[in-house]
Amino acid sequence: MPFTYNRTVRFQDTDAASVVYFTNILGICHEAYEESLEASSINLKDFFTNPSVALPIVHASVDFLRPMFVGDKLLISLIPQKLGVDKFEITYEITVAEVVVAKAISRHVCIDVSSRSKQELPEEIAQWLETNRRDAEGAERRKSREIM
After folding, report:
1. What is the pLDDT of residues 3-24, one digit of tens each?
2. What DSSP state is assigned to residue 136?
3. What is the dihedral sign for C-alpha 23, 29, 33, 35?
4. Most CB contacts within 10 A, which of 64, 116, 128, 131?
5. What is the side-by-side strand order in the sheet with 99-109?
6. Beta-carbon neighbour count of residue 9 at 10 Å?
7. Beta carbons of 101 and 68 less than 8 angstroms apart
């Protein structure tokens, strides 16, 4: 099953039209990413504080399908996928009351902090990717059986 994160839209997330400001949805997706790491027993303080490697986002995109308003209860489902030995992508699906309101993608590359050169993903991230891949595949198999 894909990892899911629940989040209520706050006033600070919205713009003058009272809908989620376009850049804030990426911040909310990043919150889901962090929760997913923590759920996999990755210590966030150790992971993000003075690391020897970094996983910067090199690409991000969002498709907005419907507006999101203050008080909306968001369910963010995320599926990370390994793209190579040094990169991965996370696909996010944001729903409100079982209606998909947005889809997003973030692509990350692993670099050595000192040299800024690409390097292989750390073991804890490789394990996180593998665990989430198995969970997502299992959910898809269950879903396909339900359709039959």
Report:
1. 999 999 999 999 999 999 999 9
2. H
3. positive
4. 128
5. 3-8, 73-84, 87-96, 99-109, 57-64
6. 21
7. yes
Cα–Cα distance, 18 to 51 (Å, whole number): 38
Q: Residue 62 has what DSSP assignment?
A: E
User: What's the pLDDT tens digit per position in 92-142?
Assistant: 999 999 999 999 999 999 999 999 999 999 999 999 999 887 666 655 555
Q: Cβ contacts of residue 129 below 8 Å, gap of 6+?
A: 80, 81, 82, 88, 121
Domain layout of the chain by residue ranges: 3-147
* Three-state secondary-structure class, residue 73: strand
- The third-level CATH classification (topology) of the domain covering 3-147 is Thiol Ester Dehydrase; Chain A (3.10.129)
Length of the chain: 148
For tokens 């490697």, the residue is 53
Amino acid in position 28: I
> What residues act catalytically?
15
The encoded tokens of residue 8 equal 């209520």
